[in-house]
UniProtKB/TrEMBL annotation:
GO terms for cellular component: membrane. It comes from candidate division WWE3 bacterium RIFCSPLOWO2_01_FULL_37_15. This is Band 7 domain-containing protein. Transmembrane segments: none annotated. CDD domains: SPFH_prohibitin. Residues 35-231 form the Band domain. PANTHER family: PROHIBITIN, PROHIBITIN 1.
Length: 305
């Protein structure tokens, strides 16, 4: 058995091994860049640039590039969710690796679902509101080259188009509606108005809006208290009006009943002739003949058998 001692250990051999490892560490990333093949995943497209100039679009699947000279930028063409929330950090769409609005994902640097802060604005009559909404959008695959040339990367599209347009239009359209309409449930009209403008604004920038949904319009506590008090007063007025209507109805019923009874008596008096009265008197007679008819003279009745 050979025992290695400091005097017999081959330091030169160890030195060569370390040098080789260092060279591999430095060269391997460079060798990766020399690979002419790359894959575009489904739901994405690749934009190929050569020396900073946009050259062509790469479809999903295995593709070829010129090593070192060409660079690939990936764009997500699937549906993406952008929403506003009271605390974006608690949303399932918030990117925890960034401290704010960021659409980077781990897969090919494409955009992912994201969350942002609510839109604060005022209504037509000056009431402060905070709007929370959700929208779903996607990039038009036929316009990705135009987007890359005129807007930029996926993240730049998300911030310059989706975030900027949706927040601006949501804010401005709210100023066209009085607070009462938004508070009492006319939200669908507001939502539709925002959606129509977003569709137009997105379309001219190569973005397709699939859905826009207003989740909540939050009013100030003072406005809510005022509305509730107004509703209470309105209910009181309605209650008093209902009571007055009931009393008037009862009064009219009594009048109608009295008029009906009086009319019935008049009709009865007009329709009953003397013979009918005599018949009614006979029917009520108890069989006892009167002895006197008045005037002090006795008038005998003849008993007819």
């Amino acid at each position: 058995m050979k025992i290695i001692t400091p005097g017999t250990f081959n330091f030169e051999k160890l030195k060569k091994i370390i040098i080789v490892l260092l060279i591999l560490i430095l060269v391997l990333p460079f060798l990766g860049r020399l690979n002419p093949l790359y894959t575009v995943e489904f739901g994405t497209v690749g934009v190929v640039s050569r020396f900073g100039r946009i050259e062509r679009l790469a479809s999903p699947g295995l593709n070829f590039k010129m090593p070192i000279i060409e660079k690939i930028y990936f764009y997500n063409t699937q549906k993406i969710i952008y929403e506003t929330a009271e605390q974006p950090q608690t949303s399932q769409f918030y990117n925890k690796e960034s401290s704010g609005f960021n659409l980077n994902s781990a897969v090919q640097k494409t955009a992912s679902d994201s969350a942002d802060f609510p839109v604060d604005t005022t209504t037509k009559d000056g009431q402060q509101v905070s709007i929370r909404f959700t929208l779903r959008y996607r990039l038009d695959p036929d316009k990705v080259l135009w987007l890359a040339q005129n807007i930029g990367t996926q993240d730049q599209i998300a911030t310059r188009i989706v975030q900027a347009e949706s927040r601006s239009i949501t804010r401005n359209v709210a100023r066209e509606f009085p607070a009462s309409e938004l508070y009492t449930g006319d939200v669908f009209k507001y939502q539709l108005s925002v959606q129509e403008r977003l569709i137009s604004g997105f379309e001219k920038n190569g973005v397709i809006l699939d859905e826009f949904l207003v989740r909540q319009i939050k009013f100030s506590d003072g406005y809510i208290a005022a509305v509730e008090q107004k509703q209470i007063e309105q209910e009181k007025v309605k209650t008093e009006e209902f009571k007055a209507q009931q009393e008037e109805f009862i009064k009219q019923q009594k009048i109608i009943r009295a008029e009906g009874e009086a009319k019935a008596q008049d009709i009865l008096r007009q329709t009953i002739d003397p013979l009918v009265l005599q018949k009614m008197a006979i029917e009520k007679w108890n069989g006892i003949l009167p002895t006197y008819l008045g005037g002090g003279s006795e008038v005998p009745f003849i008993n007819i058998r």
